[in-house]
Design brief:
It is built from six helices and nine strands. It is of the alpha+beta class.
């Protein structure tokens, strides 16, 4: 996404324009975002690899559940170890819960033991709205051809209790394991649960 397109998208978002929700089986919407180290990332940079997008807000108790239990970090470690690109995306607007500076983001990433490839900052909510991300955590899996193969919840236990992680069906793990072995994803769309994304 070039700067003109990104600026146009930002203006449309500011004007309250809605975008069609992304669809499983269709190309994942292209984007460019800067990470917490100031490095720019384009989704197209990762063509040829599986990519996970994880919407993140460390102030949300549902996100806390998956980080305090180590569930999210374990997933990140397992799949980045298999050459999957894991991009955590913070779409919280300045002044809203979950918004952090680059320095705060890096400090929290280290404290939580996150193994994400990068944490991308989406302060104006452009990319969150492009993906129709509604809650944190909400996850998307993109295949090496750039096609969206999964979108929705991390698992099937809609609670804030870390003890529920052990008995949960992990939809993201299931989607990655199926897609990475060439199988169709058996549950490609689920309903994400969590805190609303803190857009402006």
């Amino acid at each position: 996404m070039n700067n003109i397109l990104k600026s146009t998208l930002a203006l449309l978002v500011a004007a309250g324009t809605t975008f069609a929700a992304p669809q499983v089986g269709e190309p994942a919407p292209a984007f460019t975002l800067t990470d917490s180290n100031g490095q720019s990332h384009r989704l197209s940079d990762f063509k040829g690899k599986f990519v996970v997008l994880e919407w993140l807000n460390h102030g949300c108790p549902f996100v806390v559940k998956h980080y305090e239990s180590g569930n999210m970090q374990n997933l990140q470690k397992e799949y980045t170890g298999k050459d999957v690109v894991w991009l955590s995306i913070a779409s919280s607007a300045p002044g809203k819960q979950g918004h952090m500076s680059r320095e705060e983001t890096n400090k929290t990433k280290a404290e939580k033991g996150s193994a994400a490839t990068a944490v991308l900052l989406d302060e104006d909510g452009t990319v969150g709205k492009l993906y129709d991300a509604k809650v944190t955590p909400e996850l998307y899996v993109i295949n090496p051809e750039g096609v969206l193969v999964y979108m929705g919840a991390i698992d099937d236990k809609k609670s804030v209790d870390p003890a529920d992680v052990a008995g949960a069906k992990n939809y993201v793990k299931q989607a990655l394991d199926e897609a990475m072995t060439g199988k169709p994803v058996s549950e490609p769309v689920t309903t994400a649960y969590g805190c609303s994304v803190k857009y402006n």
